[in-house]
Design goal:
Blueprint (H helix, E strand, L loop, with lengths): L1 H13 L12 E5 L14 E4 L13 H9 L11 H10 L7 E5 L7 H10 L6 E5 L1 H6 L10 H15 L3 E8 L4 H12 L5 H10 L4 H14 L3 E9 L2 E2 L2 E2 L12 E4 L2 H11 L6 H15 L3 H14 L3 H15 L9
Parallel strand pairs: 2-3, 2-5, 3-4, 5-6, 6-9
Antiparallel strand pairs: 1-4, 7-8
Helix pairs in contact: 6-7, 6-9, 7-8, 8-9, 10-11, 10-12, 11-13, 12-13
């Protein structure tokens, strides 16, 4: 009897219907130990990357998918072809100091240990990771917010940008499975002061964010507005049950979002904006890695590089592309496997 009373009291407390809601409690952020290997507070670029369906092949369309994902260990997780190689190069190819790498996931922090182990297996280090504390939504009985990520992800990214301070240069990588294009577009406009504070608030309302959440996002938004720039936004096109979800990529729509199915397109985009060095050897090695892991034909890789060489405004980028093409054409794929 006494045990039952204790349990009832605990459940009442856990599922409290308090009118207060602290959005910050959702943002479970950890600064990693990368600073021990040369990281600085003001890196050349900060890369913000989603995890599920962007870095890892994850299925969550059904309850069975969610259960399977929760039970997988690190060795069961499958990295998206090319994601490891491109992020590793984006972080370290320019040497010290490395570019910042921040993973922002809508998965609960209970999965952090498995995902951390997977990243270590992939040989990848990172600056920070952020997970969504879904237990808090359960505690507050806000079940409708379990799959609504706009408020959480917006605040998580704005927190990273605010910590970076003035003058930060950001790259954002996500997917079209959920709300990444919407969130990235909003924070990019805010960061570069392409919208007013009032317009940003209207954007949150139109995105379905509740007023109690908006009130907690806006002070951070005010600190971030006009304090940095967005070099590029990349959105992985992930097919769903009804095909690909659309998102704005039309010319003139800002920020421009590059839709991709191959991470090699991300590599070429990072070369163009200066995250990767204009070095033909770097592009060649990434092309070789993508050929070996994803079996992308050499002609397709050469065609993509030629496209950048024709459109790039930087002579250094053009020279790097030409050098990479020469290296690709001068090596047989079998010789790369060693």
């Amino acid at each position: 009897m006494g045990y039952s009373i204790v349990m009832i009291g605990f459940l009442r407390k856990f599922f409290s219907s308090s009118k207060t809601y602290d959005l910050v409690r959702l943002v479970d952020r950890r600064q990693c130990d990368g600073r021990l290997v040369g990281e600085v507070s003001d890196p050349p670029f900060d890369i913000i990357c989603d995890i599920d369906k962007t870095y890892l092949e994850t299925e969550f369309e059904s309850v069975v998918d969610l259960a399977r994902t929760a039970m997988e260990d690190a060795r069961d997780k499958i990295t998206v072809f090319g994601a490891r190689e491109i992020l590793l190069a984006a972080r370290w190819a320019r040497g010290l100091p490395p570019n910042g790498l921040h993973f922002v996931s809508s998965s609960p922090p209970q999965l952090r240990r498995v995902l951390e182990s997977k990243l270590v297996l992939d040989g990848l280090d990172w600056t920070s990771d952020t997970f969504k504390n879904q237990a808090y939504n359960l505690q507050k009985r806000r079940l409708g917010l379990l799959r609504h990520h706009v408020a959480y992800k917006t605040l998580a990214i704005l927190t990273i940008m605010a910590r970076r301070g003035e003058g930060g240069h950001f790259v954002m990588i996500g997917d079209n499975a959920e709300s990444d294009p919407l969130v990235y577009g909003g924070v990019a406009r805010l960061l570069e002061a392409r919208c007013s504070i009032a317009d940003f608030e209207h954007y949150l309302v139109n995105a379905g964010v509740q007023s109690i959440e908006i009130a907690q996002i806006m002070p951070v938004a005010a600190k971030v507005r006009g304090k940095g720039s967005v070099a590029a936004v990349f959105i992985r096109r992930v097919p769903g049950p009804r095909g690909y979800k659309g998102f704005e990529t039309q010319p003139g729509v800002w920020p421009p979002m590059t839709g991709f199915t191959s991470f090699f397109d991300v590599a070429l985009g990072l070369l163009q904006v200066g995250v990767l060095p204009a070095d033909g050897n770097v592009i060649f090695r990434l092309a070789a890695a993508l050929h070996n892991s994803a079996l992308i034909p050499v002609n397709a890789l050469v065609h993509k590089i030629e496209g950048l060489a024709e459109s790039a405004e930087s002579l250094e980028v053009v020279a790097a592309c030409r050098s990479a093409i020469s290296l690709l054409e001068g090596h047989k794929p079998a010789s790369w496997l060693g």
